[in-house]
């Protein structure tokens, strides 16, 4: 039946857990687009025929194909848009440098300098996801720099309002030296506990090297 | 040097700095550490906490961290050795030592800048005077070379020379006398090891001084003190005095409860003073189990024998408790029985020869369901820290540290289960040792060795559990034997430590007397014996620290016929404050009533022989 491939794309994203980005299903997308092309061509020929020979019985078929085309478009747009939202969430989760595994799941990197909006709304052009990510990153950075006076404000820190300036953390694996803001460093060994400024530890907590100790 | 004003000279100094905390592995140190952590968190002092369980770990950790920190705080480690010599710190490093081990090393006392002791001076310290120990290197070169005098008579020169020689001989003799006196003074001072005020109480005092004490901190101080009592580290008199001190704090914290208008919510921690039974964990266990597994009752009633079991039944009948009730969980016992339980048990206990059935202690309530006695928490935390199920030492340390927080009650309950297992294993091992007559008299001391295949022997590889076992064994043995002389002997106990390395841990317990002042002489003895026999021994635990000596020569392995890898002798250490890794089988004076050393299994027998000769 028509539109099944597109449904599969949507289902694939639906199945993926919140925040995870599955690999870009280039194959599936290509099949959907081919299907759309085939439908469109069939429709073209039928419309011409209907106009020329006045065959009214072709009109329901044309309408049906048109609906499938629209449905395919909706599905692919939904697929691509959802992926973009997930990529945006990745920026907030992981910071500006993405782990390589995630980068692999994104589509090809073509560093077009198309405007951001068009990349957002015209997914058929296959402009790279990486490209989109880079531009989003840049846009976010510009925005952050514009806040807070001269130095800018890093709004990706402290997503939840912090309760205290310093937190107690415990080291789960040997990490080595870790520099604190006044230039001195702390040696992070397994099972040592430290009391450090919150914002310095957040990165390491996300990476799983430190563990916040609640008492 | 001793710090007189804790707040100005310690807290305000470290408040603006980053500090490194070295915490030893015992419950008192854990409690002191929690109190200090709470204070630091309140004032945003950046600190790093490193758990250490022995001298080697302390040294390694110090080497790793010394570049990054200037201020170091040592809790329950380091006061009884020459720290500067062992750690070799930089000039600007400052050490704050809060330690219960006594005697405090004289170098630590008289070092002016680098070592600051957080010890109350009203503890009976008896530090020898400065002049008796240190002597400025006066110029003995009292320039006697006045031969080149111009224009003096030869006869005058000769008399002057004679006078000079006489003066020098006199000085030399004085110096020799001074050195002999110094050796005596130091020997007397460092002969016995014992413990001072709990570190947790010292930290609580500091918090109180700054008006930052909370009831949580008070509870930790109570647990620290109770730990000292459970492990027999302090005398009964001192315990009662310290309980009095803490009771004043408890009444200060709890007077708010009596005012109905401002009653605290049920979830807040409420600490109260109790004059409660001495049975271990009895509220979390059944009364019967608790009676069987508490050393005090098990020893007095001699529960390892059939006769003892009958006595237990008689005891329960005398109290008036039906057997069915006593064997079920304490919480499900009839309320009518629980009402006057303590008084009834005390009365009957007096008839059966157990005069000190009740002891002054504290308990804490929060919520509707959670009630703990201080000794319960001590047993739970001790079992968590020494349980063999966690991989490395530091994992168990973090578990134990977490269990002291109020939010981690599940860990505390887990610790209680482990403690029950430990107590049961202890009693079973004692019963088997006594029934199979494993405790033999070696002349000047009693000796017992645990075989490799004994069930639960893995539970006794750590020093605190082994010393608990040994002390209980000695008490039970004293109750069971009819031999008068044996009752006054100390005990040396050995247990296998590591099968691959063939090492054993040895513990020495001083003799059981009513008025014991908890001073242990085994440290010295162990060290001497180990030296004498060239056994390969390691005094790693902080209690042995006084005899920590470094011997660079490797000894060839002696030919040993029958090696039982069980006995690790705690040796006597009597070299005062000489740092180093002693390759001796001697036991060091343990600050508390035991000395612990680790020894190669092969060296055990000759070590034992040396010990016998030394002590007889």
Helix content of chain A: 40-55%
CATH architecture call of the largest domain in chain B: Alpha-Beta Complex
Poorly predicted tracts of residues of chain B: 139-151, 544-593
Unreliable sequence segments of chain A: 109-127
Secondary structural class of chain B: alpha/beta
Beta-strand percentage range of chain B: 5-15%
Main sheet properties of chain B: 6 strands, mixed
Widest sheet: strand ordering of chain B: 11-12-13-14-16-15
Number-wise, the strands of chain B total 16
Count of DSSP H/I helices of chain B: 22
Pair with the biggest interface: A-B, 21 and 23 residues
| Strand elements of chain A, count | 5
Q: What Rg of chain B do the Cα atoms give?
A: 27 Å
Q: What descriptors fit this protein?
A:
heterodimer, A: 215 residues, mainly alpha, three-stranded antiparallel beta sheet, two-stranded antiparallel ribbon, 7 helices, 5 strands, 54% helix, 10% strand, elongated, B: 616 residues, alpha/beta, inorganic pyrophosphatase (n-terminal core), Diaminopimelate Epimerase, Chain A, domain 1, six-stranded mixed beta sheet, five-stranded parallel beta sheet, 16 strands, 45% helix
Task: Give a description of the structure.
The complex is a heterodimer of chains A (215) and B (616). Chain A has a 3-stranded antiparallel β-sheet with strand order 4-1-5, with helices on one face. Chain A has helices spanning 4-15, 26-53, 59-94, 100-105, 116-121, 129-146, 198-207, and strands spanning 166-171, 176-179, 185-188, 193-197, 210-212. With 215 residues, chain A is mainly alpha-helical. The longest helix of chain A is centred in the middle third of the chain and has 36 residues, at 59-94. Helices cover 54% and strands 10% of the residues of chain A. Chain A is elongated. Chain B is of the alpha/beta class. Chain B has 3 domains: 1-126 and 189-229, inorganic pyrophosphatase (n-terminal core); 267-423, no CATH class; 437-548 and 590-613, Diaminopimelate Epimerase, Chain A, domain 1 (Roll). Chain B has helices spanning 6-14, 27-43, 55-65, 83-87, 106-110, 130-133, 154-191, 199-209, 215-230, 236-254, 287-293, 295-301, 306-319, 323-327, 335-339, 341-351, 374-386, 393-403, 409-435, 463-480, 522-533, 604-615; strands at residues 19-23, 47-51, 71-75, 94-98, 101-102, 115-117, 194-195, 270-277, 358-366, 370-373, 440-441, 446-449, 491-498, 503-509, 537-538, 595-600. In chain B, the strands form 4 sheets. A 6-stranded mixed β-sheet of chain B has the order 11-12-13-14-16-15. In chain B, strand 3, helix 4 (83-87) and strand 4 (94-98) form a beta-alpha-beta unit. Chain A binds chain B through residues 165-166, 168, 170, 180, 184-187, 189-197, 213-215, and chain B through 18, 37, 40-41, 44-51, 64-65, 68, 392, 394-395, 397-398, 402, 405, 407. Chain A: One of its GO terms (cellular component) is GINS complex.
